[in-house]
Write the structure tokens for this entry.
Amino acid sequence: MSQLQNISLPGPTITPVSKPFWDSIKEGILSLQQCDECREWIFYPRNHCPHCFHDSLTWKQASGNGKLKTWSVIHRAGHPAWQEYTPYIVGVVQLAEGPSLLTHLPIKEANLVYNMEVTLDIHSVGPHPLPFFKKKEEEHQ
């Protein structure tokens, strides 16, 4: 999907609350909020914890690892700029820290497996770096 650098579409909506997330993606890092009270990890970025409603959240570097929970092959894109790249795959990744994230998966459909271990794989879509996930390679011992 390296050809995505030439795609022209609206970028992510960056708010004061989500800016640290997008800044870390630009640096090649996945950052998530963690509640200072109940210690739960949080995604999507917000002003208070959805678990205990505490408003003290800290941005921390996440592992960038997770497991594929579900996926869909897109044949008819929701935005016209994506149509020439169909079919492509989007999926829900449950991050090692707990939250789930909807993401693109630059993985061949035949290689997708439920609970497959995946890792962060940042791709530029137009001028915007976005968090995609790829199959995690087995570590050599």
